[in-house]
Amino acid sequence: MEISTSIPPRLSEILDDFQLSDRHEKMELLLDFSGRLLPLPEGLATANVQPEPVPECMTPVTVTMLNQGGRLRFYFDVPAEAPTIRGYAAIIQQGLWDETPETILQIPDDFYLRMGLHQILTPQRLNGLIAIVAHVKRLAAQVLNMPANPKPTIL
């Protein structure tokens, strides 16, 4: 399957790894990513930076966006009891690290299909993935002072 040019290079590499994996390997990769989720840096955790909840996700997820000179960084707080959502959040974090808002807004909402995650996750978990991407895009749109899509499309 061809990866669209609207996918940033780091995210594209991750997608390639998932595409080349069978069902069992996809789950192992996702669980491996769950251990790579970077926490909010300690100094920023006490600063005036407010995490935002992702209410559409059944798992309690918050996201904090930092704008570093027009390059965005996302930090997620996801319980350890939800390793698939943690893994997906880590993929978003690593794949979009230091990307511009414009780049983030061009990412297809359904890029997770290219990873084959619909083969290994329940519809409820997939809805959580969709909600996380929609929330990240809303935050990116806010940086550009653009109106954001009010709600993600839930499966």
From TrEMBL:
Pfam families for this protein: SufE (PF02657)
Superkingdom of origin: Bacteria
InterPro entries: Fe-S_metab-assoc_dom (IPR003808)
Domain Fe-S metabolism associated: 17-138
Sequence similarity: Belongs to the SufE family.
Name under which the protein is recorded: Fe-S metabolism associated domain-containing protein
Organism: Thermanaerothrix daxensis
Classification of source organism: Bacteria, Bacillati, Chloroflexota, Anaerolineae, Anaerolineales
